[in-house]
Amino acid sequence: MTTVKTNEETLTRKKMLDALEELLLTKNIEEIAVQDITEKADVGKGSFYRYFSSPYEAQQILICKKEAVCWKKMLQYYSCISTGTFSQKIMRMAINLTAYVNSSIYFQKIVGENASWYEYFSEADSSDPDSREFIEDLNTYAEAAGISQEQAKMNLHLLLTNTARYVSKAINNHYPLTFEETRAFVRKTSGQLFPEKSPGKTLRS
Fold this sequence. Notes:
The protein is an all-alpha fold. It has ten helices and no strands. The protein folds into two domains: 1-52, Homeodomain-like (Arc Repressor Mutant, subunit A), CATH 1.10.10.60; 63-205.
C-alpha cells in the first residue's frame, strides 16, 4: 500500500512539473497561477501545496533539472576532446554550450538568463569518471596558472554562466546570433578567464 501511494505521489508531482514546463514555453513565471498548473496537469488544486510552496519553487526545481542535464552533456563533450591545452578545451566546451542553448527551447525558456553551474563542479561526483577527470584538469590548470582551485571554479562558473545568458538573452529578445558572434564572445571571455599558460602542452594524451 505504501509503495503504491508513493508511486502515485511521485507521478502527481511529475505531472505538475511537466505542466509547468509546458506553460513556461509561452508565459513568464509571473503570469502562471497555481490553478493554471493543476488544471493543465489534471490534478486537484490542493495537490500542488503538498509538493511546492509556490510556482516559483517549482520553477527552481525545473531549472536545476535542466541545468543538470546540460552539465552532464558538457562533461561528456569535454571528455571526447582528446587534444589541446585546458584553455583551448574550455573554449571549445563553451562554444558547444552555445550550440546546446540554441537547440533547446526548453533550456532557453526555463533556464535562460538564470543559468548557473557553480554547485555542480564545486561538488563534483568522484564516482563519475567524466566529472572526476574534468575537475582534476581544472585543478591542474589552477596550479599551473598560480591561482586557487576556488578561483578556477569561479572563473569556470563565470564563463559558462555568462555564455548561456548571452545566448539566451539574444534568443528571447528575438535577436538571433550568428556563429561568428557567439564564437567571438566565447573566445574573448574564455581568453580573459582562462589565459593560455602552457602553449602546446596537453593535459593528457
